[in-house]
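Quick one, T. Sequence first:
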Amino acid sequence: MEVIWLVFTIVSYFLFALVALVDKYVIKGGYIPSAKIYAFYVCLSSVFALFLIPLGFYIPSAYDIALSLLAGAVIVFGLFAFYTGLQHFEASRFVPAFGGFLPLFTFAFSYYLSPEKFLGKTEIIAFILLVLGSVLISLGQKTKVAQGLLRMAIITAFLFSANLVLAKLVFLNQPFWSGFIWMRIGAVLIAPFFLIFKE
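Structure tokens:
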């Protein structure tokens, strides 16, 4: 079982790296004028999730709806932060830095929600190395650039981890397709935010 999860993890990181490179190419290549517009279009495309309604969709409790919409809204701002980081920094530096902080925030959120789960010494050392690696990978640039990269990586990781934990709570209370659709609705509802407010 552990080997299967290792394979899934490696494949996931590989696909995420490809997506990050494509996003970087789209933003820096001038195909999309800014990270804000890119985030708007990506989140607006979530409306196509409505075509999945026949697979299993129902109206849950008001709490579950609010939780789902919040998860969808958070990922919108997470994507905006991610695209902004790709727009201003090298993908080979920003993505690893973001990936290093992501488990740290995810653990913090998960621990707050489920304090009975503790990490062993090996896991704690792994977290320390992840954060240390995230800091070191940005030191190859100028001080101001490194500080900006770390700040954006931390913000992005915070928002993505918040979305992951919220999504976990959503799927604990709802079937997959219903929870997924409600979260996509949340993303669509918050997407116009980028048109109403200036950067």
